[in-house]
Queue: 4 jobs
Job 1
Amino acid sequence: MLDLAQLAALAAVHRRGSFDLAAAELHVTPSAISQRIKALEDRTGILLIRRGQPCSATPSGLRLIRHHDEVALLHSTLAADLPSLSPGPATLRIAINADSLATWVIPALAATPGFLFDLVIDDQDVSQDWLRRGEVMAAITAHPGPLQGCDTIPLGSLRYRATASPAYLKEWFPTGVTPKALTRAPALTFSDKDRLQDRWVTRQTGAKTRASFPSHRMASSQAFVEACLTGLGWSLNPEPLVKDHLATGRLVELVADTPLDVALHWQFTRLAAPALAPLTQAIRRAAGAVLVPPG
């Protein structure tokens, strides 16, 4: 049987990126962390951590980290029936896109006691990769699957609106939202992985290739809205974040009634499904209150 303390050290080094930070998280010395990792590598006969800045797990190390997380969740389920065995809240690592976090996920987390949430924020188009690598136990993703060893529940679609301030629209699109104007008007992009603006522009222009337009970059859902309000750029914003601004006229759609819906799914490891059941129920309720229902 693998030593749980050694597995915990492996997970902490990978996720915190260094032996010192892992030691601080687990309340032991860096030397103790080093000894645990060495003992685990000796036991398995394979390299589990790539030493560097930051440290990171090898594929075999990731598989053991996933095993550690699954065992920790199973322990939390057992502790619900036998409270005297409880070591405290279980840490649950989930991959979530920033817009879901900003619009509907927090109430679901708040409605699920007994966990410490470690959220990995990444684009919905790639969040499934975190689950595939074994770095998270669940993910909100745009991909329906199937993913080996995982279950998928469709949640509905997060609706986006292409929005800008009236002054911005007047300055950059004086004769309408034309393909030529779109190549000049500054947009907002979350990161290199963000394709929402691309998809909307391609849909409007009918272009066969990827859209080209100037863009500010800022990794914040709320900052997108503020930037649109101040006239810094235009962007696809989640409807729940901008509906009040649209109602008052502080923001307007670039092209009226041209929403972009992004289907979202809740994926989780099948082995951890019983322990995740309360969170899964809360996720479905919260999604049902905000997202466009699945078709």
Job 2
Amino acid sequence: MNIAITLLIMIFISKAIMANKITRPASLVKQGNLTLYATSLKVSELLSPNFYTIDRLDPENSEKGFQRVLNKARANKLAKYIVAGQENKDAFLPTSIFMATNKNIPFNPSNNTIEIDINEIGTLNVVDGQHRVEGLKMAAEKDPRVLEFEVPVNIAINLPEIAQMSHFLIVNTTQKSIDEGLAQKIRARLTTSIGLVDIPTLPKWISNLIERGDDLKALQFVVFLNKDKESPWLNKIRMANDDNSDGSINQKSFVKIIKKYVLVANNPIVDTEDEDRQHRIFLNYWKAITNIIGTDEPTVLFKYNGVELFCKFCVPFFSKMVNMPDYKVSTMQTLLDHVFDNVEGDAAGVGHTVFWVKGSTASGLNTTALHKINNEMVKALHIASTIKKEMAV
């Protein structure tokens, strides 16, 4: 960016700073308990210091933020389009940016205007439209004429953070899609907020998921496996919004599998154990598996097929474990050894390292094949049932 452009941008923004307040024509919109102002902002106003913030989800802390990671390539594509349209004034961006504040913004009904005083209300949160905002910012840095470009904006007032997060979920699951891993984390946070704060009316399918709490429960399993220092899964799971992770499976898939196979009515540890013990028993299960099969790369044990198979097998396995002396790794490992020794048919070799080497048998398994292998393992589990009696003596 050359010096002349920098100076022009500084002039525009300094004017916004001096004004302290932005007055814009607006329409007052009531949607149930939600109050919105439909208005427009110049890019220079949008880029005023401390005017907006984007509350992005922290992949290391599910309690912070809710926005997805910024896709700079997507924002840059918009920036190029906006800049190219400045010469002939044919660039247009009709889709509104959704912003929100938990404070009130005064509305003047006599002239239909709002007055935004950032010193009073603090920064506005970009609930939906962060790529448009970033694209406009990039465009203004390339061409100062963009600073005069106006964009439609809907501003929600008196909206608490939990409600802002809920509206982000509604917009991005009913009107367009977001990564399911991000949606899982938001639904998990909403589950913990039930009965504590007011949550906006959500689509029935979303509210059902939140009330059941399966996303929260499954996510807790995944976070525990991914963070425990003794876990074979340590840092192997790619959490939502974590673009820097080289995990072998993403949070979205792991949570989905746990909800499908682990958090079920016939799982004895879910029915009888508290959550902390559930997590530790499940960790011991994976320790026992990896003690036998190994963790050396290249392995696909930590990819989708490994997770699918051993989560599917865990319920019959834990059903046998309830009558064992304990849930120690050594106890589980003894039972697994006998399962692997007795397994036949399509599952032969499933307990050996070579079966899971990348490019070997496990790499090419489909859902049908995994189902057959699981059935063979369950048969072998019953053959091994005499071992548990010997251990209990």
Job 3
Amino acid sequence: MPIKFLLLPILFYVFSEQAFCQDSTDIMNQLISQSENNKIHYAENTFKYTRVVDGHSVENLHKQVLDVRISHRFDPINSGIYNFFGLDVAVMRLGFDYGISNNFMIGVGHSVYQKTYDGFFKWRILRQSTGAVNMPITLSFVPTIAVNTLRQFDSVKTSFQDRVSSVFQLLIARKFSETFSLQLMPTFIHADRISFNHIKQNIVAIGIAGTQKVSKRMNVNVEYYYQLPEDQAPGAHNVLSLGIDLGTGGHVFQLHFTNSLGMTEKSFISETPGQWSKGDIMFGFNISRVFQLGEHKKKDWKAKE
């Protein structure tokens, strides 16, 4: 029998085997692709932390996680050498935030500035995702209430309601890449009657914030709020803050420069007398420590590294 007739069955087997393997590979790839498309892939770490600088980010604490947050703000740098460029004088806010669920958290705090007590909740309504659900943004709702308890107003006829302010914010964020995210913050403020010279109690502002990851443990943040001119109080200016997040395991350190002394939304958005152009720049830092209070799980939340 000629050799060529012996080769024909061998060649047929080889080519059919290759075709079968190719078809099997294509089928497996299609199954994997379909499986991935049936899953929801959520955007992670849009911001490094639950705050940008002072204002909220769309990040939430995980369920049963407690965050103890200590914030410091020093006097303006232009106060000179006598005041050690502002470092001789500081105000502080002590806050406690807690995750009720992965999409809902609450918090309370006390500020030395205006002897203010404040509370808030943050509800994440939508979350940026791809796959089975294609959602281009993350959306959160944050209402805040604050009470000015300064005694200097006790001699004036003021009711409790006159000391109360409230702020309502929508946080609209998108993670554009693994290193860059942006956030918009439409804000409505109902100011109290004693903290500042407000012509209008109802104030509308829009904020914008961004973060850029520069290393595994470091992010650079910027935060700016613009008040509608017709709502802006005399002597109040828009707040601009620049900050750095440093993650170290269970701690987050935030170093920042800003023109605002207040650390509650009503204070830093609508009651900032300082201006960057005049050197009214204040250095501050925040220290955050998180504790897992519930049962530990594989994906317990900790300060993002």
Job 4
Amino acid sequence: MGLPGRFLIRKLGLVLILLLVFGCDKGENTLFPRENRTGISTDEIRIGSSLALGGHAGYLGSQMLHGAKSYINHINETGGIHGRKINLIALDDGYDPTRCLYNTQQLILEEKVFSLFCYVGTPTTVRIIPLVNEAKIPLLGMFTGANRLREPVNRYLINIRASYYQETKAAVDFFVKEMKLDKVAVFYQYDEYGFDGLRGTEIALKQYGLIPVAKGSYVRGTLDVEAGLDKIIQSRAQAVVMIGTYDSCARFIKLARDKFFSPLFHNVSFVGSKELARRLGPIGEGVLVTQVVPPPNAGKNDGTLPGVTEYIELLKEYYPSSRPSFVGLEGYINAKILVEGLKRAGKQITREKFIRAIESIHEFDLGILNPLSFGKNDYQGLDRVYFTKIKQGELVLLK
């Protein structure tokens, strides 16, 4: 090899040494491998989130972020985690999978976040699974009940809420066992989110020897629900399981009422029930929504649910114009688990220590009726499904 080649190799070697010496996060002198301590400095923990802050799902991302940041701001103002403040970097993906992928790359490679957090939606979150696996970065607290984020078990995907399979099973059990109905249709968004809810409903119906009497769909980001509605009307369905967003589902129900078609309408939690109820107004009376957290006003007056009371108080302090919601409460709970994991991981935190810390959380009292538990090969903390019904524009707890 000639002199130019040897010079190039020496130069590359020097660059690598400089990267090793100076590549650690600014302000933190550590012997730990850099890739394990990305996003950690002397006084900061960088966390990244990609979620819809505008567009047809903007209400969901905004509520999720307000709930999560209410608790994070409180923790930061009371000293942070082992002397470090949490810096939550939130990017808007408009509920678009391609934008979510781009945002996640930016968060990992440019912002160099320690963990991903509070992603919103199935099609967006599923899109980044390969990136999460490649980077070996934890993703905690996704606003989606998708089965693909639960099976096969993936220790980097830390779910807190119950799954869509659990929600749709609860709905089908209610329709068939309690209401004695046998004609159940499915209206779904034609993407990963809708397919997941459809599969969950089909699995639940199969236990009773039933199949959906009709399946209608619409394209994500549109309000083109007429074709799906007509198909379901023709089936004479007694109940409709709906897997969509608040704008499309509200239009579906309005058009159905206009055509004097009034089966039992059921929506899964992702719909954004507060916004659905607002858009429906008086015609929303009796619409069912399964939830994965208790009502955001439970304990407001009597203090029976201290976790909910705490959420309401901190939301009012940091986001006084934002009203309590199921989505916001879920974001708040996500933040409590994030903080608990960071605390348990210790001052010399690494991503691996953080994941093990999450695994150690068992029977953790959130002040919301049911304790939360994780474990090895168990990366979903909560399992309870709540039934609510729209009554006079409010979501009322049925069971």
